[in-house]
Design brief:
about 35% helix; binds adenosine-5'-diphosphate; globular; binds magnesium ion; alpha+beta; five-stranded antiparallel beta sheet; Dna Ligase, domain 1; Rossmann fold; 3 domains
């Protein structure tokens, strides 16, 4: 294939979220796959790095970042912050991209903001659209839609439009939680990621502290009954038709999968998870139904809880731009399902135009 006939893929990575470095690793994995022996004849890449302040860095420098084995310190040279300027893409070459591949985790990425911006270019993108991304990121609306469809979830309450800086309101909300839910509870900001702002609370005073912490990230909050669980995950790809991967299990040595344990080296990924085939089918079915319910397509990772005592499955959440590093669950699940990383990335690009 001639150079000019190759499809030009625009990888967008970095970003202002707390998952900045994970995004860089994800982008490196996808870049390597796009220029692999299998794919180089079909694809060429333009890169768009967004630094931690939201500043878009030009294509050549961004591409260098993907090629280098750069340490986090090297990345720090790119953390310029132009005072007084608006962080809107400035002097960035958007032309010539055939298909976008946004790999921004969390804020401005998974919540649909980047999808909205890219819509102006009228080019397809890998992943879902604005609506599914926003719903997948928002734990309040996601849970309400799942409740409506009777998809199994742990018991929960939601808070919005309440002034939690007022002690009377805080006390009343805490009493309400204790009355309606079994302790311990997990208190979560509606929009966050990597477990940031989430607490496990066993007493009234811990609930108050947990609400104050969550409120620091989002005034909309979800409170869930905390169960004793195993954590199972399933990958989804497709547009018109969604397909589910094998099921994987993540195991960690901490009490729950908090920020530190998510990025610790001690986690173990087990694929396929040690569950029976009936449960595996049930998980795949819920994963597809729940993505359909929120209008999520392209790719996603759907996370489940398996309650140890009852052996019951509960849907936890959907991640619309799952981690794509070489050690991430999503590519590992597809590898176990018959698509190696080069095939997976090519497939995601191919299906992006199948709407
Ligand atoms: N209801 C719950 N019962 C037991 N553990 C929970 C519950 N909710 C969350 N957790 C623990 O907290 C982690 C992070 O919660 P999650 O809702 O997935 O937030 P995030 O979107 O930040 O990943 C989970 O992976 C799990 O270990
Ligand atoms: Mg999670």
């Amino acid at each position: 294939m001639l150079e000019k006939e190759k499809k030009c893929i625009g990888i967008i990575f970095g970003g202002e979220s707390n998952e900045h470095y994970v995004s860089i690793s994800s982008a490196k994995t996808v870049f390597k796959a796009l220029i692999s022996k299998t794919n180089i004849a079909r694809f060429k890449v333009k890169a768009f790095y967004i630094n931690k302040h939201g500043v878009w860095i030009n294509n050549n420098q961004s591409l260098e970042l993907l090629k280098q084995n750069s340490s986090n310190e090297t990345m720090d040279n790119y953390q310029i912050f132009p005072k007084g300027e608006i962080n809107f893409p400035n002097k960035i070459e958007f032309q010539g991209i055939d298909i976008w591949f946004p790999l921004l985790h969390g804020l401005n990425g998974e919540d649909g903001a980047i999808h909205g911006l890219l819509k102006f270019t009228k080019k397809p993108l890998v992943g879902g659209g604005i609506l599914g991304s926003a719903l997948g990121m928002d734990k309040v609306l996601m849970k309400r839609i799942f409740s409506h469809l009777e998809i199994p979830q742990v018991n929960y309450l939601t808070i919005q439009n309440q002034d939690l800086s007022d002690d009377n309101v805080l006390n009343k909300v805490s009493d309400d939680i204790i009355e309606k839910l079994k302790l311990p509870v997990f208190v979560k900001p509606a929009n966050s990621g990597s477990s940031l702002g989430i607490s496990k609370a066993k007493t009234r005073s811990e609930i108050i502290k947990a609400l104050q912490k969550a409120r620091g990230i989002d005034s909309r909050i979800v409170i869930e009954e905390g169960l004793n669980i195993r954590e199972l995950e399933c990958g989804i790809i497709g547009n018109l038709k969604l397909i589910a991967s094998e099921i994987g299990e993540v195991s960690y040595s901490t009490d729950w999968y908090d920020y530190d344990s998510k990025y610790s080296m001690d986690n173990q990924i087990i694929i396929p998870a040690d569950i029976d085939s009936q449960m595996s089918e049930q998980i795949k079915d819920i994963a597809i139904r729940s993505c359909r319910a929120l209008n999520i397509y392209g790719f996603a990772r759907v996370d489940f809880f398996l309650e140890k005592i009852s052996n019951k499955i509960f849907l936890n959440e959907i991640n619309t731009i799952p981690g794509f590093t070489s050690k991430s669950m999503f590519p590992m699940l597809w590898n176990a399902s018959g698509l190696n990383i080069d095939q997976l990335v090519a497939k995601l690009v191919d299906i992006s135009s199948d709407l």
